[in-house]
From TrEMBL:
GO biological process: peptide catabolic process
Gene3D superfamilies noted in UniProt: Neutral Protease Domain 2, tricorn interacting facor f3 domain
Protein name from the UniProt record: Peptidase M1 membrane alanine aminopeptidase domain-containing protein
Domain Peptidase M1 membrane alanine aminopeptidase: 569-783
Any one GO MF annotation of this record: metalloaminopeptidase activity
Organism ancestry: unclassified sequences, metagenomes, ecological metagenomes
Gene Ontology CC, one term: extracellular space
Length: 870
């Protein structure tokens, strides 16, 4: 027996050291299995690839993979690591992203694989391609196609480009015409069909249509557009044309300049710039004119105003409108903002002020408003890098970024169910310097002093709407939020909503978090919906607070040496006054922060306001700077009254489009003037109205109130004079026209109907008309939609009659009919008499029976009606 055992020893030794390790080595890992599939696909070794599939689905998969390589003509594929893996000893489920590509296109797929283990090797038992296969393109110019042509003409809507003896470079997409680059002597003709847009051209270029010489043009369009709108006359003598190296290099340089500006996104899998193909009438023409410079004509049938004529040197919209096309009704479209709604955010932010560095995690609850929602678009600052995005099942989602337009597109594995909330998580980080705010703001002081400026001892950091510091809605969704913000221990933080917790970060668990030990943690929650999130970091001192009815707090930043006690009491008075006029204060608290900054002014996010103050040593007395159209800071309550008004107008109720921006700034300015009159008496109004009227007459030519933010493209003072001042004057006239009771009842109803939502000018008109019972069509058409001001001739006569006098007033409007209240005053028997006339016809006559002869007759004494009165 012993001898037999001795004989078996060499075999057992061989088994233990050679056979068993080899059996163990044959146990395949998931990572090795994916690498095996990747290698087979890279080599286009379809038989080897199919070995990874079970017999039951191998034939079906063979058809699919041959379709990718033979029909779609893909020549390579990359598999990206599983985003979610569920594994037992003999089974596994995982998700893979497959990136097929060739020289001109890519196909992006999400695979759901069910694996089983057979003899230590993984096999795919089931494979599902989830969602749509996303086809995108890699356009190149120059490609293999170039022609010298006799002429090429591009006509569309209100524009025509024409070139003679030109070189035309085609893109590399086979079988479709989607892009051209033209070199040669060209000509531009652009004539807007909208009269208001012709007026804009006349103001900017002194002509109502544009003609210019071109040296090149880069065009993107659909194949349908090419066949319908582009006419090329080829030169038969140039059939064998070959573009020179110089021309090809020039074409490549121009293509590189313009390619990223239209229809392109950066994909998340390999960071390559990919493009979609324009659809239908979609088109972008980019060119450089001899006089105009670098401009683009953009036509998008999927927007409310299809034509955008854009100048790149100062990034300004010259024209934006819908063309007048006969026989076409109003178009219907659904924007991204209407396809889904954001219900809530849970955001965690770690902010390092000295490095301007943000690390963030945003959990967003979204609700689809359509069936089969494939993707959503959010706004995110392109300086922030996305680390990963998960759905609520922790599956990594494919995304792409349009950095030029600050847009983030997220693609779902499965379309979420309609009207059922779901969540996504976005992890991101990056260096981000807070930009200046341009919405819900007021400009700085109208006083000039002999000032010695001093550097601020410490800065503050305000991240608000314009920063896009978190993945924001593309429209005006109102949502609730919970924010957890970590800052160094020497800093404080103020944000939207209620501060529900403030702690120190002490229990860190990972090595990379040790440096955060002792950091301050602020947790805020909003009780009411808000339209955007903001936070302010700095070194603050709390001066005073009041929680009697509404929690009020007053802070000032380091560098400010005077406390301004009494600010809380003033804020209480302002809020109570506005509540009596507009309705209840819409948020849970109000924090007022005075900070040292480089410019004066303010900003008003939901539930807190920021007042900027210059760091200065004052020397001498101030005087009014008349170059500021909007500022009324000779009354110290003005800034805070304007900013608090934004809690109603701009925050609780916001504007739908740029045409409706006056609903924020115009109503806030009007509200501030109401409070100044309440605080200091009606005697303050004449100088305010005269100032507003003066600036309105001076700047009205640049456009109507409903031109909105486009007014600021030419001159910031134009925007202030029209959106703040003219709108405030129009509201004041409307109050006089309707009477106090009907007017403020209408405002309260408008606020109540549209609270925590976006409203339009049409919504405002509808509400006011319903409450007042008056047809206000002419009033709003000429005061809000026209840049023209009334031209009024006024004459009067005094007739002696038995027992007194008759004062006759004749009012004649020379041009357009405006509806307005006209105040008239005179001195009678030593007393000042004021009368209000309602002007609603082009010619009117009014008679007043007086006991004494009137003296010092004044028409429109406070200039409350802007225009020319003779």
């Amino acid at each position: 027996m012993k001898r037999r055992f001795t004989l078996w020893l060499p075999f057992l030794f061989f088994l233990a050291f050679f056979i068993i390790p080899q059996l163990t080595a044959e146990e395949q890992s998931i990572s090795e299995f994916i690498s095996q599939i990747q290698k087979s696909l890279e080599l286009k070794d379809i038989p080897d690839y199919l070995k990874s599939f079970s017999n039951e689905i191998r034939e079906k998969e063979e058809l699919i993979v041959k379709n990718r390589f033979n029909v779609l003509q893909m020549d390579s594929v990359a598999l990206f690591k599983p985003s979610k893996l569920t594994q037992t000893e003999d089974e596994a489920k995982l998700y893979l992203q497959a990136f097929f590509q060739n020289s001109y296109s890519v196909a992006i797929e999400t695979w759901h694989l069910s694996l089983i283990k057979v003899n230590g090797q993984w096999l795919i038992e089931q494979k599902n391609v989830l969602g749509r296969v996303r086809i995108m393109y890699k356009i190149k110019i120059p490609s293999g196609r170039a022609e010298r042509v006799k002429s090429i003409e591009v006509k569309h809507a209100d524009i025509k480009l024409s070139f003679k003896d030109a070189i035309v470079f085609y893109d590399n997409i086979p079988g479709l015409e989607t892009g051209l680059l033209i070199l040669g002597k060209g000509h531009l003709h652009f004539s807007p069909s909208d009269s208001g847009e012709k007026h804009q051209l006349d103001l900017i270029y002194k002509v109502s249509f544009l003609e210019d010489e071109l040296a090149y043009a880069y065009l993107r369009f659909s194949d349908y557009f090419f066949r319908k709108n582009i006419r090329i006359v080829k030169d038969p003598d140039e059939e064998n044309f070959q573009a020179s190296i110089l021309d090809r290099n020039k074409a490549h340089t121009l293509f590189s300049k313009y390619y990223s500006r239209s229809f392109t996104v950066e994909n998340s899998l390999n960071r390559e710039l990919l493009t979609t193909l324009p659809q239908g009438e979609e088109a972008v023409f980019s060119f450089k004119g001899k006089k105009l410079g670098d401009v683009s004509y953009i036509y998008s049938p999927f927007t409310p105003e299809e034509i955008n004529f854009f100048r790149w040197k100062d990034e300004k919209i010259i024209n934006l409108y819908s063309p007048h096309e006969s026989g076409k009704g109003r178009k219907i479209f659904i924007s991204f903002a209407e396809m889904f709604k954001i219900n809530s955010y849970k955001i965690e932010i770690d902010f390092k002020p000295q490095q301007f560095y943000i690390s963030g995690k945003a959990k967003i609850e979204v609700e689809s408003k359509v069936d089969s929602l494939q993707r959503i678009r959010l706004k995110l600052n392109p300086r922030l890098d996305i680390l990963r995005i998960y759905d609520e099942e922790k599956r990594a989602l494919i995304y792409s970024q349009d950095r030029l337009r600050e847009s983030l597109y997220i693609y779902f594995v499965h379309p979420p169910p309609e009207n059922k909330p779901f969540s996504i998580e976005i992890y991101y980080r990056g260096k981000l310097v807070p930009p200046d705010q341009v919405t819900d703001v007021i400009a700085g002081s109208q006083y000039e002093r002999n000032l010695g400026y001093m550097a601020a001892r410490s800065e503050t950091y305000l991240f608000s709407r314009r920063a896009f510091w978190y993945p924001s809605p593309p429209g005006d969704d109102y949502f609730k939020a919970r924010l957890r913000i970590i800052v160094p221990p020497e800093y404080q933080c103020i944000s939207n909503g209620e501060l529900i917790e403030k702690t120190r970060l002490n229990d860190v668990e990972r090595v990379e978090e040790i440096e955060k030990t002792g950091s301050s943690v602020y947790i805020f929650e909003t009780k009411y919906p808000i339209k955007y999130l903001s936070f302010l970091v700095g070194k603050f001192t709390k001066v005073e607070e009041d929680s009697e009815s509404l929690p009020l707090q007053h802070f000032y930043s380091s560098g400010i040496h005077f406390q301004k006690k009494g600010l809380i009491e003033e804020a209480k008075n302002i809020i109570q006054f506005y509540e009596s006029k507009f309705g209840p204060y819409p948020y849970e608290k109000l924090s007022i922060i005075r900070r040292i900054w480089f410019t004066s002014g303010g900003h008003s996010p939901a539930s807190f306001i920021v007042i900027n103050e210059l760091s200065q040593a004052q020397n001498g007395t101030g005087y009014v700077n008349k170059s500021s159209p909007v500022d009324l800071s000779r009354w110290k309550e003005y800034f805070i009254a304007h900013e608090i008004a934004h809690q109603w107008w701009g925050q609780a109720v916001t504007w739908k489009t740029y045409h409706d921006q006056w609903l924020s700034e115009g109503l806030a300015q009007f509200s501030a003037t109401l409070y100044l009159a309440e605080r200091h008496g009606e005697g303050v109004l004449p100088s305010i109205l005269k100032k507003f009227s003066q600036w309105t007459r001076k700047k009205s030519i640049w456009g109507p109130i409903t031109l909105g933010s486009r007014l600021s493209y030419h001159d910031p003072k134009v925007y202030q004079a029209i959106i703040y001042n003219k709108a405030s004057l129009a509201l004041n006239m409307l109050r006089d026209l309707l009477g106090e009771e009907a007017f403020f009842k209408g405002l309260q109803e408008f606020f109540s109907r549209h609270k925590y939502g976006a409203a339009s000018t049409k919504d405002f008109i509808k509400t006011i008309e319903e409450i007042s019972g008056k047809d206000l069509t002419i009033f709003f058409r000429n005061w809000f939609d026209s840049y023209v001001l009334p031209e009024v001739k006024v004459s009067h006569s005094i007739l002696k009659e038995e027992g007194g006098y008759i004062l006759k007033l004749r009012i004649t409007q020379a041009k357009e009919l405006f509806v307005f209240p006209l105040w008239v005053e005179w001195i009678e028997n030593g007393n000042r008499v004021k009368k209000k006339l309602i002007i609603d016809e082009k010619k009117e006559e009014f008679n007043f029976k007086l006991k004494s002869k009137p003296r010092k007759i004044k028409i429109n004494p406070n200039k409350a009606v802007p225009g020319r009165f003779n």
